[in-house]
Structures are given as structure tokens and as C-alpha cells.
Amino acid sequence: NAGVTQTPKFRILKIGQSMTLQCTQDMNHNYMYWYRQDPGMGLKLIYYSVGAGITDKGEVPNGYNVSRSTTEDFPLRLELAAPSQTSVYFCATTLSSGNGNQPQHFGDGTRLSIL
Amino acid sequence: AQSVTQPDIHITVSEGASLELRCNYSYGATPYLFWYVQSPGQGLQLLLKYFSGDTLVQGIKGFEAEFKRSQSSFNLRKPSVHWSDAAEYFCAVGSGYALNFGKGTSLLVTP
Fold this sequence. Notes:
The complex is a heterodimer.
Chain A: E1 4-7, E2 10-13, E3 19-25, E4 31-37, E5 43-51, E6 54-57, E7 64-66, E8 76-78, E9 87-94, E10 105-106, E11 110-114
Parallel strand pairs in A: 2-11
Antiparallel strand pairs in A: 1-3, 3-8, 4-5, 4-9, 5-6, 7-8, 9-10, 9-11
Chain B: E1 3-5, E2 10-14, E3 19-21, E4 24-26, E5 33-38, E6 44-50, E7 56-58, E8 64-68, E9 73-78, E10 87-95, E11 98-101, E12 105-110
Parallel strand pairs in B: 2-12
Antiparallel strand pairs in B: 1-4, 3-9, 5-6, 5-10, 7-8, 8-9, 10-11, 10-12
């Protein structure tokens, strides 16, 4: 039972490079989220999706893009990597949540360093 | 907007001692509250949740939390801490489509 799978687990990028962080879920959940976690700052929401074809910005969307072509996949794209994007990125899912009453299921994270 | 404050950045307890981690929320109505735990190098795992009803909720791994509306608090407790409980703990409040997380409390367990 895989749950939420994130790839890669670790990555080092050079400034200006681009990459896609992958997130796949097999729980048939409608809602998917991308967070970044910085030391001492908790988790900040980057983007979220309420279903295939529907995405919306979270608290810190600048420098990122997302797409949701299927229920299972929710990739996060960095177009021009900057040092400020060095962070740990978490993907999460929930079955449905229009009012925040559903717990979220998290992947193990992608640790990204930009040098 | 809903928000969560975890006043303690770090907490150190001895193995076998009791534990209480503090969480204060800001929300007008009855909030949906969660506690998550994050072990090093891992994602977040749900410990317990509160939606309504009994204000004392039981979770996994022997944890419990008490919702106190008058104090806007949702503190996490465990009667006897084990070394394996050393981790980062996050309180969160449901907010629309997402969760608002506190900044976390890092728990160190000493022998």
C-alpha cells in the first residue's frame, strides 16, 4: 500500500536550472497539496488541487508551477531555481475537504538544495 | 484567518516522564484541530484529530489531547515518554481547503 509517493528523495540543483518534483497517490483522493518546510517555520502551502484540471495558489506560490492532469499525479515545477527555494518539499492528499475537516496524508518529502 | 501557535520551540524530557506540548489556535467557530508527528527524514504522520464532541481525544502511540475552548488550546499529552517519541510535533487547524500548521515543537528525550 504505497499511499503518497514522492520522487526524487534528494536533489541538488544549480541556480537557474529547472526540475519537476513528482507526487503520485494511489488512494483515489481528490485533494492534493504541495508544502515547503523550512527550519523553524513549519509548513507553508505552495499550491493545491481539488481535482483533475483544477489548481490554485497557496501561501507561497511564487517561483513554482503545478498541473493536475490525473487524479493520481500532482507534479511541482521549478522553472528557474533560486537559493531561496532550498527546502524540503512535501506532497499531501486528502479525500475531500471544503472546510478543513479532513486529515492529510503525507509523502516522505523531497530534500532540495540549490547552489 | 485561522492560525496556530506552538509556544515551545524545543522541549526536553526524561524517558518515562510525562509530556505536554502546547498549542493555541485562533479561530472564530469550532475549529478542526490536528496533531502530527514528524520523525527525522520522514513525512508527517497524523497522531489525532478533534472535530467536535468529547474534548479529550485519544490518538495513536499513547498520545491524547484536550480541547479547551475557553483557553483556545489543544495541548498534546503523553503519560510516559519513550525514547522513540523524540521527533518534531506539529499542531494544525483546518482552514478551508488546507491546513494551517504551527511552527512545530522539537522533542528531545534523555535517558
